[in-house]
Amino acid sequence: MQHDLVLEGNGVRLVPLGVEHAPALVALVDDALWRGMTSPTPTTTDEMAATIIAAQQTPARLAFAVLGAATGEVRGSTSFYDWAPELARVEIGHTYYGRDWWGGTTNPATKLLLLSHAFDAWGCARVALRADTENTRSLAAIQRMGGVPEGVLRSHRVRPDGSRGDTAYFSILAPEWPAVRAGLEARLG
């Protein structure tokens, strides 16, 4: 869905994802990085633009480009999706960053912005996160952030190579948010 939400803090700026971000994003991805996604790896600017347009056309999904706040460089992308305001819940996902930003402050800063908006602005009771069970980097990042494991949905998704994948689900509930926020703020120091 089209949106105009912009979030900024701790060195990152989240802006509505647009086709203008396609050249920078396609330069960041490869098959290994994209493995946790359900679509084939975009290898051209046109393929990435089509991926972006699909994200924009998905109801209840707010897709963002993740930028360096000071420089404007494109670091990756993330989304709110399956947003159900009437149920006070949303998921965060479709997240990927270029390898230059792995292990640094980009992911915790981005998650702090998204979670703050979900809990503090939207009043969510629940934020869910999920990842393919083979995506050990994402699973570790979700747990390090404070996501509580809920279980694994077996044969839940089809990977780009056609194989079936299991999905690990995590959530953060509103009463858990203050501790998660404190942990993310401490990591960003």
Automatic annotation (TrEMBL):
The keyword Transferase applies. It comes from the Bacteria. It is an enzyme of class 2 (transferase). Keywords: Transferase. GO terms for molecular function: transferase activity. Residues 13-146 form the N-acetyltransferase domain. Its EC number is 2.-.-.-. The keyword DNA damage does not apply. Pfam families: Acetyltransf_3 (PF13302). Transmembrane segments: none annotated. PANTHER family: BLL6696 PROTEIN (PTHR43610), N-ACETYLTRANSFERASE DOMAIN-CONTAINING PROTEIN (PTHR43610:SF1). This is GNAT family protein.
